[in-house]
Write a structure and sequence with these properties.
The complex is a heterodimer of chains A (about 675) and B (about 190). With about 675 residues, chain A is of the alpha+beta class. Chain A is built from 22 helices and 18 strands. The chains are: A alpha+beta (about 675), B mainly alpha (about 190).
Chain lengths: ~675, ~190
């Protein structure tokens, strides 16, 4: 074993050196290692290694957390794996189709800022906003498998003149380790991704894999350590989290059983990739169906596969694999259509049923993705509210009412990437030529400064420091700004002396109405006053600029000492527009697909497909929000569409009449032929 | 299996269309020269049935409209869409009903009884026009029903295109043959 390791490590070194000389990335270096290659999988009774590459003794006084890199990396090429899709967002790897952005949430300031290193229309680049990679890792690491912005690139980041809000505590916390088990654990292993998230929130980066796997209890919180804390100093020992290993998890020879699978189970994926309708959190979960493929026993990783490079297939049309592999057969069509050549008539993967789409004009398949008709909730005229595990921290134990921010809406069927990026100053929405696909969408909320018609977004932490005193919000922006209570004097004026002191539940309907109306007026004044003061505080810090709070597609600026006014359209530029990303799941079966009930499901004047409307979530109480119509971005002439829809009225009758007429025509023609032949 | 074994030429349709139009156009011009050179001095035929003449003219207008909305659109933007598609669909409905009326007299040369002394070009172009129209309409109707799957629908569209092309060319040839007989050249 040791002999093999020696050879392997030498090979790694020379490969590494060679690739450096060639100027290539380490990602390309896939080192061949010994593998079991048995389909039954390898039973992992293995020793734990810490960050110093020492075998962990669970009985040691100051036992260190285990390092997945050093433990798993003894047999697996962690270096190659660490450049996979889930880890390479900061590395400039081509994004392909835009995915869901990371949304920086700060409930204290009403900030919901869509961020992405990969670009994508409507998102903001973290570096451009002065958000460090360490901050990204700290903010989002709970729903990352480690690495990425928390990897080497994150902790080594140094900035000579850090912008406001910028922070890097990488020297305190160390790297965010890649935890192989977050994806490869089995459901029954006891591995807890919830524990992983909690440890990351406590900034216990190095301790999260150990705690999540349940190997040890981790006591301590690195978030409390000062920025200049040196974890290598002598006095650091007592301040760092304490690791108390569970002895029963260790065999007599010190080895631990890793209950893992090569192909991740769907539950592992769902921890970060759960998408649900809001009524799921209010007791309606049992009313919803599962994805038809999951129901049929297919797991996420059956389609979203990867090799050692962990370049996971995303499965959209015309996807280009970073490793150059042919992955077309992992798409919907790859399984369900197989070979396009009718003569060969080859089935797709797993011999999936070939969709017949009887009577549906083939033009539809040039214009629509499979998911347009088969995925996500059924479209409705007013887009429904949706929730997502990362955006709404599903997994955290809390009482939810479905109104949690950010407000995400869908499905909205439009060409992919229809919302123009807000980086280049061009129009909000541009017609796109991509296939129609269902989307989720949300509007950003953030604080910024407006200068010469252009908004500069403030770092959320910097904005908090500037506005917190005037906003008077402790934890939650929207409810606290909306919270007003009438004084006794005001109640006396409304209800009279006698009724002014009665409890709320004793109010009559008329009294309640009066109170609500009065509270609404007070609320408007309160919101305007606090917002105006907060905006003034920003303007004081950034002279010669106009502070703006953007939310729901509208910018709010100060108008006097205690007034705010909305900026619409061009006034606020295109940095207030929504961001949208495609819906892939849940996949609905054919009989629940859009159009299964007939052409008029889409080809009618009020069909959701062409007429969905979305009203942005109200983050700022009692203030206007944008209403957005999919008709504005679908690249088609609405008069033509309306006329086309008219042709579907009475179509069934036309078909019957037409068939009768054609039958008669055929008979007459046949009679003429017979008559001519018999005459001769 | 419906349409399963049908194979159509692997040539882009616009090329086939333009080629056929060119061949038919040149052919008709040459034929016209030949006809004029060898014309007979028969008295011009005048039809008395205004309804049939009107029906025939209407049929030609419908065919011309279908040709412009389909082939014109294909030549211009590569496919049918927008107003052209709507126009084609609406007029196609009229075409199907006109076809029934045409089937009553077209194979008989506009008379209620078959005439054996009709010029062969008028006779055969009438039959071709009738049969290709039937194929074009029937294929499209079958495509509107939940019968054909995607690959067969694609094939049906191709057959519809080629049948439509035949309708247009035979309509032109038939109109030409009528011109010759009405003028007394044949």
């Amino acid at each position: 074993m040791s002999g093999y390791l020696l050879v392997s490590q030498k090979a790694t070194f020379w490969n590494f050196a060679f690739l450096l000389l060639c100027g290539q990335t380490v990602a390309l270096a896939q080192v061949r290692r010994a593998t079991s290659d048995n389909l039954s999988g390898y039973v992992h009774w293995i020793e734990l290694y810490d960050a110093q590459n020492s075998v962990i003794d669970p009985r040691a006084e100051n036992a260190q957390p285990y390092s997945p890199k050093n433990t798993c990396g003894r047999c697996h090429d962690v270096e190659t794996i660490s450049h996979g899709w889930h880890f390479n967002a900061v590395s400039g790897v081509s994004a392909g189709r835009a995915g869901q952005p990371w949304v920086w949430k700060d409930a204290r300031t009403g900030t919901f800022l869509p961020l992405s290193y990969r670009g994508g229309a409507g998102t903001f680049e973290p570096d451009a906003l002065g958000i460090s990679k360490w901050q990204m890792a700290s903010q989002f690491g709970g729903f990352l498998p480690g690495g990425g912005p928390g990897g080497t690139e994150g902790v080594d980041e140094t900035v000579s003149e850090p912008p406001a809000g910028w922070s890097n505590r990488g020297k305190v916390t160390g790297e965010l380790p890649i935890d192989c088990m977050i994806c490869h654990h089995t459901q029954s292993s006891g591995y807890s991704p919830f524990e992983w998230t909690e440890q990351i929130e406590s900034q216990n980066f190095a301790y999260a894999p150990t705690a999540a796997m349940g190997l040890a209890e981790v006591a301590g919180n690195m978030k409390r350590l000062k920025d200049d804390f040196d974890p290598k100093s002598e006095e650091a020992e007592g301040k760092l989290p304490q690791v108390k290993y569970e002895p029963t998890r260790f065999r007599a020879d010190g080895k631990v059983f890793f209950d893992l699978v090569r192909k991740p189970e769907s539950n592992s994926c769902l921890y970060c990739h759960s998408n649900i309708a809001t009524d799921n959190v209010t007791g309606g979960r049992w009313l919803h169906d599962e994805d038809v493929h999951v129901r049929a026993g297919i797991s996420c990783a059956d389609c979203h596969r990867n090799g050692l490079d962990h370049a996971t297939v995303r499965g959209f049309d015309d996807e280009q694999h970073v490793a150059g592999n042919s992955i077309a057969s992992f798409s919907c069509a790859g399984c369900h259509v197989g070979s396009q050549d009718l003569a060969k008539n080859l089935t797709g993967r797993l011999g999936a049923p070939r969709p017949e789409h009887r009577g549906i004009p083939p033009l539809h398949f040039d214009k629509l993705t499979c998911t347009a008709c088969h995925s996500g909730p059924q479209p409705t005229r007013q887009a429904g509210k949706l929730m997502n595990s990362i955006l709404h921290t599903l997994g955290h134990k809390s009482i939810r009412d479905g109104e949690e921010l950010p407000g995400v809406f869908g499905p909205v069927v439009m060409p992919a990437q229809v919302i123009d990026g807000n980086q280049d100053g061009s129009a909000d929405h541009e017609p796109m030529s991509g296939k129609y696909a269902p989307h989720r969408m949300m509007w950003p909320s953030y604080w910024g400064i407006l200068k010469a018609g252009d908004i500069t977004v403030l770092h959320p932490d910097a904005a908090y420091e500037l506005v917190r005193r005037d906003l008077k919000v402790r934890t939650d922006f929207t409810p606290e700004l909306a919270d007003v209570k009438l004084s006794l004097l005001q109640r006396k004026e409304l209800l009279g002396e006698e009724r002014s002191r009665v409890k709320e539940f004793e109010w009559t309907d008329e009294e309640r109405e009066k109170i609500l109306k009065a509270e609404s007026k007070v609320r408007v004044v309160q919101v305007a006053e606090r917002m105006a003061k907060a905006l003034a505080a920003i303007e004081k810090a950034y002279p010669d600029t106009q502070a703006v709070y953007v939310s729901g597609g509208i910018g709010f600026v100060r108008s006097g000492e205690a007034e705010i006014k909305p900026l619409l359209g061009k006034e606020v530029g295109n940095r207030a527009g929504p961001v949208a990303w495609t819906i892939g799941h849940n996949v609905r079966p054919a009989r629940q697909a859009l159009g299964a009930q007939g052409c008029r499901e889409c080809h009618s004047h009020d069909s959701p497909f062409f007429n969905t409307e979305v009203t942005a979530a109200a983050v700022l109480p009692d203030q206007p929000v944008s209403t957005w119509a999919v008709a504005d971005v679908q690249p088609m002439d609405r008069v033509v569409l309306s006329s086309w829809n008219e042709l579907f009225v009475g179509r069934d009758m036309f078909k019957i009449a037409g068939l009768i007429v054609l039958g008669l025509t055929s008979l007459l023609t046949f009679a003429s032929v017979v008559s001519r032949m018999t005459r001769h | 299996m419906l349409f399963a074994e049908v194979r159509l030429p692997d040539i882009p349709f616009p090329q086939v269309m333009l080629g056929l139009f060119a061949i038919v156009g040149i052919g008709l011009v040459l034929h016209l020269l030949f006809v004029l050179a060898t014309r007979k001095t028969q008295p011009a035929i005048r039809r008395k049935n205004i309804a049939i003449r009107g029906l025939y003219v209407l049929f030609l207008i419908v065919v011309a409209t279908l040709a412009v909305t389909s082939f014109g659109s294909i030549l211009k933007v590569g496919h049918m869409s927008g107003w052209a598609l709507i126009g084609h669909t609406v007029v196609a409905g009229a075409f199907v009903f006109l076809l029934l009326a045409m089937s009553a007299y077209l194979p008989r040369g506009g008379n209620c009884e078959e005439t054996s002394d009709r010029w062969w070009l008028a006779r055969w172009s009438a039959w071709s026009l009738m049969l290709s129209s039937l194929v074009a309409a029937a294929v499209m109707f079958s495509a509107m029903l939940p019968i054909l799957d995607t690959s067969r629908l694609q094939l049906a569209m191709e057959i519809h295109r080629y049948a439509g092309l035949l309708v247009v060319t035979t309509a032109v040839v038939h109109a030409y043959s009528l011109l010759c007989t009405r003028c007394g050249w044949r």
